[in-house]
Amino acid sequence: MDVTPIIALALALGCILGGNAMEGGHLSALIQPTAAMIVLGGTLAATWLSATPAEVKKLFKLSKRVIFPGLALRALIVEDLLKVSGVVRRDGMLAVEPLLAELRDPTLRRGLQLLVDGNAAEDVQALLELEADMEEHHSKSAAKILDSAGGFAPTVGILGAVMGLIHVMSNLNDPTKLGSGIAVAFVATLYGVGFANLVFLPVGARIRKIVEAEAEDRAMVLAGLIAVVAGANGRQISERLGPYTGHGGGHAEPGAGGGGAKEAA
Questions:
Q1: Domain range spanning residue 8?
Q2: Which of 73, 117, 154, 192 could form a disulfide bond with 250, CB atoms 3.0-4.6 angstroms apart?
Q3: In terms of domains, do 249 and 163 share one?
Q4: Residue 37 reports pLDDT greater than 90
């Protein structure tokens, strides 16, 4: 679990509301259900209209990874690759099959299973690269939904502001309604800009970074598989995968027990 997004959002809200209070503003003035309904409802509808059902479904699956990234523990994957390499060099590729259930990364298991089944290394590489590219493409397309929401929200906030001003102008003869109308107008703009820049755009960027890190995980596994097929020894494999283990992903020391290739939630 990564609580960074929660802390960051709390810090942003704390600074904004604290600054408002220091200037003599009241929290109640920022709570406008009408403005919230206009901005959130309008943004949701526009974003939904711009996305495909498959993208929306994918985004729901990815959304939990904002808090639970589930990134691979790369050091543990390297540990598994070294174990596989030793078996292959000693007993051949078929001897790996009993080990497949123990491997902690699904891409590694799938690649080795394809090799054990007799597929050519070039074909396995091409298939895994295609699957990785498609997964990255669809995940980033889903994350772009939040970019769209970040673009729509300020504009819908302006619509709410215009509606509030129209309400004010139509009630100039009743001063008691002027304050609420102006409040909705300005608060709608605040909600639109706030949700766009504090929620939608940052969360979309975070999901994309997680997707990119996972793409690096798959690239690392593929590089390791190619090295295993080529008969590389443990030292050579460690050197080839060194650039991957030094950046991104989860972190664990080789030999760390349990857990699996995915970061424990």
A1: 1-31
A2: 73
A3: yes
A4: yes
